[in-house]
Amino acid sequence: MPKILSLVVYPIKGMRGIEINQAKLRPKGFQFDRRWMLVDQNGKFISQRSHPILTQFNIRFDSEQLLVSFGNELLKVEVEEMGNNQIPVSVFDDQMLASEAHPSYSNWFSQMLNESVQLVRHSSATERIKNFATYVNPEHTPQETPVSFADGYPYLIVGTASMDLLNSRMSDPLPLDRFRANIIVETFEPHEEDHWQHINIGDQKLLVIKPCARCQVPNIDQKTGISGNEPNKTLATYRKRENKIYFGMNAISLTNGLLTIGQEVYPVE
C-alpha cells in the first residue's frame, strides 16, 4: 500500500520548503504553504524563473515566527502579523489583493536581492479561484477551488517510483526537491498517481485533478540555484505531450484535517 513519505510546505513562494511531520489540510493548501510572496514594484510575483537566487534563502519555523536566513543575515517574520494595507498583486494572469507586510521585512529582502521588492501576505481579502471544470466529470462537485499564491493548485503530489524511473534514465540522479511537491508518496509503480481520481488518507480525502505541467524550475538546483537542462531534457523523451512536460499530479483537499508521515494512502482510480 502506498504511504506518505514526506510532507513539505513552502511558506514564501519560490523559496526553499520545510519538511514537516504533520500538516494541516486547508482548502487553499497546507497551513502556511505559499502564504507569503515577494512582488516587484508593479505587484507582479517573483519566482525562481527570474530569480534563482531565491533558492539560497533558508526558512524554518520557531514558535510564532518564520525565520528566514540568507548567508549570515537573519530575518524574523511574525507568522500571524497582518498589515493594514491591501495592495493589488498578480500571479500570472490572476489579479488579487494581498496584505502588505511590515516595511522592515520588505527592506530586508530588497537589500538581500539588491533590488526593490515587497513582501506580501495572503489575507482574508485575497480572493483567487481556480476553475477545473474542464478536467473533471461535469457532474462532479466541486469544480473550482480557492488557491493561495501557488502557481496553479493547492497541492502537488509526486510518487517515489516516478522519481526512481526518471533517475534510472539519467546518468546523474537528482533529488525529489527539484519538483517542489507538497505530498510525496512512497509508490511501487512509476506514475501510478496519473490514474488516481482521489485518495483517502485516514479520514482525509483529496481530489486528484490533473497532471502537473512543468516549467523550467525543476532544472534549477535547489541547493545552489544553478540551472541546467535536467531533468526536463530526459522527461521530454517520455513524459511530453502537446508540447508540455508532465510530472506529478495537482490536487485539492475535500477535508480540513491532518496528514502525518507514514499514513497509508488509499487511491481510487
Question: What does this protein look like?
Answer:
By secondary structure, the protein is mainly β. The protein has a single domain, classed as PK beta-barrel domain-like (M1 Pyruvate Kinase, Domain 3, Beta Barrel). It is 9% helix and 36% strand. The chain has three helices and 20 strands. It has helices at 103-113, 160-168, 232-235, and strands spanning 3-9, 18-20, 22-24, 36-39, 58-62, 65-70, 73-78, 86-91, 94-100, 118-121, 129-131, 144-146, 155-159, 183-186, 198-201, 204-213, 240-241, 244-253, 258-260, 266-268. The strands form five sheets. Strands 1, 2, 13, 14, 15, 16, 17, 18 and 20 form a nine-stranded mixed sheet that branches. Strands 4-10-9-8 form a four-stranded antiparallel sheet. Strands 5-6-7 form a three-stranded antiparallel sheet, with helices on one face. Strand 17 and strand 18 form a beta hairpin. The longest helix has 11 residues, at 103-113. It is globular and about 50 Å long.
Structural class: mainly beta
What is the correct CATH architecture?
A: Beta Barrel
Beta content comes to 35-45%
Weakly predicted, low-confidence segments: none
What proportion of the residues is helical, as a percent range?
Answer: under 10%
Distance between the termini: 14 Å
- At the fourth level of CATH, the homologous superfamily is PK beta-barrel domain-like
Question: Number of helical segments?
Answer: 3
Largest sheet: 9 strands, mixed
Q: pLDDT average, as an integer?
A: 95
Radius of gyration: 18 Å
> What is the H-and-E element order?
EEEEEEEEEHEEEEHEEEHEEEE
| Total number of beta strands | 20
CATH domain topology: M1 Pyruvate Kinase, Domain 3
CATH class assignment: Mainly Beta
What global shape is seen? globular
